[in-house]
Amino acid sequence: MKGEIQRQGEKKKVNAWVIHPVKLTALMYLKEALLKERYEECHTLIQTAVEFGASPWEIRNLLEEPRRPVG
User: Fold this and answer.
1) What is the pLDDT along the chain (71 residues), one digit of tens a residue?
2) How far apart are CA 14 and CA 54, in angstroms?
3) 19-28 contacts: CB < 8 A, separation 24 or more?
4) pLDDT at res. 13
5) In which region does residue 62 sit, left (phi positive, over 0), alpha (psi from -120 to 50) or beta (all else)?
6) Is the CA virtual torsion 25, 28, 32, 34 positive or negative?
7) What's CA 63's distance to the chain center, in Å?
8) CB-hemisphere CA count at 13 Å for 36?
């Protein structure tokens, strides 16, 4: 379940605002790759971010960033 960790048969609540460092790093690298137009790196970074808990809206917000250069 989201927001819970299961260890040795017990469940512990996890603060929903705690951000996994790998997720945060992957999102930051994704933003940097998009800004520098290094699109070949984006797939791996998105997979990593999702694996460590990134939500679809977090990824979408970076992909739809209006400040990125167009064309």
Assistant:
1) 445 444 555 555 555 567 799 999 999 999 999 999 999 999 999 999 999 999 999 999 999 977 766 66
2) 15
3) 19/53, 20/52, 20/53, 22/48, 22/52, 23/48, 23/49, 23/52, 23/53, 23/54, 26/52, 26/54, 27/54, 27/58, 27/59, 27/62
4) 56
5) alpha
6) positive
7) 12
8) 10
Q: Which helix (H) or strand (E) holds 66?
A: none
Placement of tokens 């939500």 in the chain: 55
Residue 41's CB is within 10 A of a number of other CB atoms, namely 14
pLDDT of residue 69: 65
Contact 12, 4 (CB under 8 A): yes
